[in-house]
Amino acid sequence: MATVEEIENALDYIELQQLPLKYGHALDLIGRGQHRKNENIMREGAKLLRECFSEDFIFEELAGEPINVPGAEGWIDYVANALGGFVGTQHLIAPPLVLIKTSPSNRNGIRIGGEATLRSYVIATHISPPPGTEVYDLGEKSPATKTGTNFGVYGTYRDECIRTKEGWRIRRRSLDYVHTQGYIFGEQS
Q1: Most buried residue, 45, 61, 64, 119, by CB count within 10 Å?
Q2: Cβ atoms < 10 Å from Cβ of 64
Q3: Three-state SS for 145?
């Protein structure tokens, strides 16, 4: 029979694995909401994104360049601006490699503290309509266009996580590009 500590450790791994997956879904919702000017979709994505980050979160590097965007609200604004021009995105994020550096401890019945790192592969597809083409929004089940040009990003997220009283959260995040491919707003990359 598993001990309480073994069960808590297993739950830590599950919770940490969910963070990048929730993050990817949130990005797609925020971009879609911004593009459609739909506040409900924006709010849903923003809520999910806030659940991923600690209060002192910072997105440090993007493609090897420092960007240092602080806080969940700062990242929500950044993402809405960056993705709102696309008619659709899909952030396919692989389950991360989870390395727990220090386990949380129980303080007054709350598990807090602890540090972990995550490494997640990502393939992000961004769809732009061809220049001069009318956008055909296919609705909630297919929110992109019937035709479009793809811009793909292939890379690795590097995360430092901490356990807060609300659960595991990403404290520092960076994205290293391995490759980009395709067209972005009519220009070849």
Answers
A1: 45
A2: 9
A3: coil
